[in-house]
Amino acid sequence: xxxxxxxxxxxxxxxxxxxxxxxxxxxxxxxxxxxxxxxxxxxxxxxxxxxxxxxxxxxxxxxxxxxxxxxxxxxxxxxxxxxxxxxxxxxxxxxxxxxxxxxxxxxxxxxxxxxxxxxxxxxx
Length: 124
Description:
- This protein is an alpha+beta fold.
- It has a domain at 25-110: TATA-Binding Protein.
- It has helices at residues 38-55, 94-110; strands spanning 28-35, 58-60, 65-68, 72-78, 84-91.
- It has a five-stranded antiparallel beta sheet with strand order 1-5-4-3-2, covered by helices on one side.
- The chain is globular and about 35 Å long.
């Protein structure tokens, strides 16, 4: 007779995270707010989008720009409450996170937006 699983624990009582969807497993992430003038923030997003489309990147531009890569994803959008750009991303590995941050930082630099180390709006 088969035993039923009780919640997230199989009959042997051991927790197995691989039973969850990959999106629920631990990720390496970042979350930034970058100061950007109200008159400039939407132009920055348009400039970055144009470069990504030209490069053939896999993007979703429903709310800002969400870029999917082999390492994970990053999102760039305009804050609706502040003169700022909101930047978030997730990767499966620390090295992947480093690459995502590098690619995003390069895109923002091309539009004149600097991402300072130790940004006060940074999390992760």
